[in-house]
Design brief:
Number of strands: 0
Distance between the termini: 20 Å
Structural class: mainly alpha
Radius of gyration: 16 Å
Strand content: under 5%
Number of helices: 4
Largest sheet: none
């Protein structure tokens, strides 16, 4: 897993215009606060709308969120 702080990314792109093409599909949100420490951990909540409350393992919570997400309905990803 990789993480980049927006305070680092913004100046880097401003100082190196050639990097804009390389990172054109890269998304970061400056000045954003979330309930989960990493985006990867927030994805199940984004897909399901249900908070992880330690009622099951995080792995099971993650798998259930992906399996039941309307976004993936009818697709065999898992």
């Amino acid at each position: 897993m990789y993480a980049a702080d927006a305070r680092f990314v913004t100046p880097m792109l401003e100082e190196n215009p050639d990097y804009r093409e390389i990172f054109e599909d890269f998304t970061y949100y400056p000045d954003t606060v979330g309930a989960y420490p990493f985006t990867m951990m927030a994805i199940p909540h984004i897909l399901s709308g249900e908070w992880f409350e330690n009622q099951e393992s995080f792995w099971d919570y993650n798998v259930n969120a992906f399996k039941n997400a309307p976004l993936f309905e009818g697709r065999l990803y898992l």
